[in-house]
Amino acid sequence: MARITAGVGSSHVPLLGVAADQGKDRDAYFKPIFDGYDWTRKWIADEAKPDVVILVYNDHASAFDMSIVPTFAIGCGERYAPADEGWGPRPVPDVIGHPDLAWHIAQSLILDEFDMTIINEMDVDHGLTVPLTMMYGAPEAWPVKVIPLAVNVVTYPPPSGNRCWALGEAIARAVNSFDEDLNVQIWGTGGMSHQLQGQRAGLINAEWDNRFMDGLVGDTQSLRSIPHIEYLRETGSEGIEMVMWLIMRGALGKSTKCLHRHYHVPCSNTAIGHIVLEPVDGTVPPSPTLEGNNAAAQ
Ligand code: DHB
Ligand code: FE
User: Fold this and answer.
1) What's the Cα-to-Cα distance from 52 to each of 3, 30, 59, 100, 102, rounded to whole Å?
2) Neighbouring-strand partners of residue 68
3) d(Cα 4, Cα 182) in Å, to the nearest integer?
């Protein structure tokens, strides 16, 4: 049976992709950022070794634009190329999908009454490739299969934190019902507090960010109820990216423990935030509808 064994939270700052691609990742400015991922790189390569990562991220007008804005979308394709974000695609390998598991998750989520958009073809931008770089460095091929799960946090209204958490629980139910033995991780990316435009451009709220990271650990569910307006007021216009971390947290079940945590300012216009979590009690509530809808589908 497939199981979610760990969750990872990480910012996805595009500048870090540039630094890594140009070999500047241990220069004075970047060193304290990349050093904070050394523990995770060793853990993921030597110990955790996931077969598949469900990578929750947001597209930044690369694959989608104002012509189509899916709230939640799942990549069911075979592979995804790095997107050209204006200065050519990053020189990183294509991302290889896991269509069998992705289609299984898509079916389970939709019968669980989460109306996912299904994507078979798209390019993936820094939101997805930068976390892979932070966790795996610069390999010839990514050593893990990736199921992209894209969330709209660019155009209002984004989904609520509560809905994101519930989607995470539904993802855990989906993974738990996949027959093949697979070691699956879920990553939540984006954040931390940042605002890229307007009068408050450059805003960073380290105290709030750290309280958010505290709330991911243990069995509290207090982060579920943070309203959009609080993200906007306290963490700037782009801080809402943090709701994606709640999908990761929801998928880890009742309680978690923290294996590693890192926070550093500055990192471009934001703070780098990174956390590695393990489920302590991975129980998720049963769905009121999944079993009945599954039976009806057979
Ligand atoms: C920055 C951060 C982001 O999350 C992003 O998508 C783009 C830019 C930044 O801090 O520069
Ligand atoms: Fe972003």
Assistant:
1) 10, 28, 20, 11, 10
2) 65
3) 9
Residue 296 has pLDDT above 90, yes or no: no
pTM of the model: 0.98
| Residues forming a β-bridge with 264 | 272
Q: Are strands 52-57 and 95-96 parallel, antiparallel or unpaired?
A: unpaired
| Locus of tokens 């809808």 | 293
Give first-to-last CA distance, the chain, whole Å.
Answer: 20
* C-alpha distance from residue 198 to each of 2, 131, 201 (Å): 45, 27, 5
Atom number of ligand 1 nearest to Cα 15: 11
Element holding 75 (H helix, E strand)? strand 72-75
Residue spans of the domains in the chain: they are: 3-297
- In CATH, the number for domain 3-297 is 3.40.830.10
CA 149–ligand 2 middle distance (angstroms): 14
Sequence-distant (6+) residues with CB within 8 A of 163 are: none
Specify the DSSP class assigned to residue 224: G
According to DSSP, the β-strands at 72-75 and 117-119 are parallel
The CA distance from 80 to 120, in Å, is 9
Helix axes 14-21, 126-136, angle to 10 degrees: 50
Is 274 in the active site?
A: no
ipTM (interface pTM): 0.96
How far apart CA 118 and CA 105 sit, in angstroms, is 11
Angle at 148 between CA 147 and CA 150, to 5 degrees: 150
| 241 CA: nearest ligand 1 atom | 4
Work out the average pLDDT over 231-239: 96
